[in-house]
Amino acid sequence: MQKTHTSPFIQAVQVSKRYPGAVKPVLEDVNLQVQRGEFLAILGRSGSGKSTLLNTLSSLVLPDSGSIYMEGTDICKVKEKERNRLRSHTFAMVFQQHHLLPYLTALENVLLPFMGGLGHVTKAQRQAALDMLENVGLQGKENSRPGTLSGGEQQRVAIARALARGAKVLFADEPTGSLDSVTGDAIMQLLHSLNKQGVTVIMVSHNPEYARQAQRMVTMQDGRIVGIAHAPNE
Ligand SMILES: Nc1ncnc2c1ncn2[C@@H]1O[C@H](COP(=O)(O)OP(=O)(O)OP(=O)(O)O)[C@@H](O)[C@H]1O
Ligand SMILES: [Mg+2]
What we know:
Bound molecules: adenosine-5'-triphosphate, magnesium ion
């Protein structure tokens, strides 16, 4: 495919995937385009293939057939090193479980992606981490350890960590899944605010109410996309 400015930001073309030993494919001929700056939700029952689709779009999981294009480049065909670079710089990932390190402070957790083997971070990186913590509403909590933070605050740290290196796309797999509704609402507000700042958000959710808040909602069933709905105001 030609690299042109009209290419979709991220595009899945005829993507299929079957896990070894599984009877049915987990993804079957999935076609999907994501535009730059979009807020896209993926909704569907448990086991319908949402996480697998998300992980395929972010190149964490490679499809058996089909392609994933990022600005016109097939990221399934580039070297693993290039995919790693994409996942550490351009893409950010947040999961239902935040995977914070309990013995590090909020700030240190956000600084993790910057740390090489020596654990050294520059002043600018530290400032970027502090700015990101402020952006997610955690000023004053920089030195708190995850165990002393609420579930929503811990998820905010995970979001700050995911975006600390200036990622352009946030892949969020059930980011509100382990939170109560009030805390979940606040995390949704944060995702919307990050989206307004220019971050493309691709979010998996079980919650139709949250999914409907996205600009576009993709519904999955048995490894296939069975519906795409646009938000009423789009
Ligand atoms: N690594 C794996 N190896 C084998 N089978 C897998 C693997 N990951 C997922 N599956 C299977 O693929 C199907 C889809 O899984 P997936 O995690 O994509 O679903 P999901 O829609 O995200 O579900 P949930 O809402 O429960 O998170 C399931 O039947 C699951 O058991
Ligand atoms: Mg899942």
